[in-house]
Each structure stands twice: as structure tokens, then as C-alpha cells.
Amino acid sequence: MFTGIVQGIAIIEDIAAKPGLSTFAVRFPADKVGGVAIGASVAINGTCLTVTCQEGSTLHFDAMQETLRLTTLGDLKAGDPVNFERAARIGDEIGGHLLSGHIHTTAKVVEILRPENNVTLWFEVPEEWARYIFPKGYIAINGASLTIGEVRGNRFNVHLIPETLRATTFGSAQEGQRVNIEIDSQTQTIVDTLARLGYDRPTPTL
Prior knowledge:
Pathway: Cofactor biosynthesis; riboflavin biosynthesis; riboflavin from 2-hydroxy-3-oxobutyl phosphate and 5-amino-6-(D-ribitylamino)uracil: step 2/2. By secondary structure, this protein is mainly beta.
């Protein structure tokens, strides 16, 4: 499990593509890999991956074809920055909300607004996932636990303070970029339960 509190930015050093599998070599800040063991779970842009090898502060991860298809990991190239979070341990503070590291879908950055001292990002998700997105609800974007601002149809926004921009890759976000989305599990359970009882929420309209 993860908390949605991004622990820093790592850099993709190399990607070795094989049939049905890609191996990512990811360089972490040196002070963030202490105690890492082979088999440990690390969220890379919100996607839970398993450490297969360690070379100093560089960790290696394998991603199957299905993972590459369902997430934005297949878009990455050497030199790209990524958000990371090591798996939570019993007793850790849950500063965001509990995440599984299993990506539900991807979204596209459709607009970036820069009012004074913060940034507002607008995202567009596939229509079928809009039913789980509510104003002031939780959502994980590239592994970061964020609060939803406005919702318009299958679009929603989040408001980011300077510290979030500094500590994550959102500071370099660009329009048209794809991001990984993990829907809040409690919200999904409630919406799906109500739908089974006949209280289905229609897809929001503009």
C-alpha cells in the first residue's frame, strides 16, 4: 500500500525493451534507497513496481506489456523525471489517502492555469470513469494524493501549491501530457454499490 505522499523525483536512466517486457533503470536520490531489498514495492508515477536489481542509487523494475498498455509507463524515455513513493510501513503517517498502486485509467492534461502562487491543472478522463469523480473527493494522479476541485463532465481540476510543484513532476506538466489515474477505492465502492441497488449515478454532463 501507498499513502499518496510523493517522496521525491527520480530519473529514468535507461529502458531495455524485450518482447512483452520492459526493464526500467531508475536513478533515485541517494538518501532515498536505504534499506531497499530485492522484491520491494515502489510506486513509479503511481504504478506499483517490484525492485529486481539495485546498483547504488539506481533501481531496476520490470513492467509487463499489460502494465505498459494500461499506464503511461510506455510513454517514458531516458532522462524523464518520475514521481516515486516507497511502500508504506505499519505505523507510517497516512498524509494523503490509501492507494494500491494499481492504475485504473489515464487522463490527459487539457489546460494549465497559473494564478498567483499556485497552478490549476485541468484533466480529461475517459467517460466511463467520470462517475467516480466528485468535487472535493480524493484522486491519485501520477501517485500523488490530491483533492478534486471542479468537475465538468469528464473533466476535473486540481489546485497545486508551490510545495507540491517543487516536490513532484507537476511543476513541469504540459498540455497534452498523459498521467496515471487511481480512483479512490472507497468512492468506487460506494458508487458501484449504489448502482447495484438501482441508484446509478449518470455520467456528469457539461
